[in-house]
């Protein structure tokens, strides 16, 4: 769809290219290059953010249990369970009161899902880690 030869060969526009999506991609690429420092920098940043959350899970003595084995862990979505579904519901409710929203896991899996995508600042990850430690202290 973004190959100009297709447009030339057809003598017209076979379809409208996804202009808005291309525009947004341009903005994201500018942000990634100019503000973050490029692909290596975002990889380092995301690896560090994920390591903080996984560190809380791994040091919780089993209170938090990760879904994925360490070799398969995601840098973007950290999924884990608590000792009970009732405790997970309390975790989600209390987290929302602290401004940590949308932590409910996928409907087919349950548990907790912390999405720490590229745009999530380190401060957000630190707030989540602090909340997780505090929650474990008061409920573990």
TrEMBL record:
| One of the GO BP terms on file | L-serine biosynthetic process
UniProt organism field? marine metagenome
| Protein family | Belongs to the class-V pyridoxal-phosphate-dependent aminotransferase family. SerC subfamily.
Q: What is its EC number?
A: 2.6.1.52
Coiled coil (UniProt feature): none
> What Pfam families does UniProt report for this protein, alphabetically?
Aminotran_5 (PF00266)
What this protein needs as a cofactor is:
pyridoxal 5'-phosphate
What protein is this chain from? phosphoserine transaminase
Going by the UniProt record, its keywords in alphabetical order are: Amino-acid biosynthesis, Aminotransferase, Membrane, Pyridoxal phosphate, Serine biosynthesis, Transferase, Transmembrane, Transmembrane helix
Q: Where is the Aminotransferase class V domain?
A: 3-128
What's the top EC group for this one? transferase
**So where does this one cross the membrane?**
20-43
Higher taxonomy: unclassified sequences, metagenomes, ecological metagenomes
Query: What is the reaction catalyzed?
Result: 4-(phosphooxy)-L-threonine + 2-oxoglutarate = (R)-3-hydroxy-2-oxo-4-phosphooxybutanoate + L-glutamate; O-phospho-L-serine + 2-oxoglutarate = 3-phosphooxypyruvate + L-glutamate
């Amino acid at each position: 769809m973004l190959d100009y030869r297709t447009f030339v060969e057809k003598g017209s526009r076979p379809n409208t290219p996804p202009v808005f999506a291309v525009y947004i991609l341009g903005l994201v690429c500018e942000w990634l290059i100019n503000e973050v420092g490029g692909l290596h920098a975002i990889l380092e940043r995301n690896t560090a953010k994920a390591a903080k959350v996984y560190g809380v899970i791994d040091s919780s003595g089993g209170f938090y249990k990760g879904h994925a084995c360490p070799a398969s862990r995601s840098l973007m979505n950290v999924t884990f369970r608590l000792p009970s579904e009732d405790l997970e519901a309390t975790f989600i409710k209390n987290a929302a009161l602290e401004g940590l929203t949308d932590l409910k896991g996928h409907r087919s899996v349950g548990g907790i899902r912390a999405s720490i995508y590229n745009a999530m600042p380190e401060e957000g990850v630190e707030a989540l880690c602090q909340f997780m430690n505090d929650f474990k202290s008061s409920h573990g």
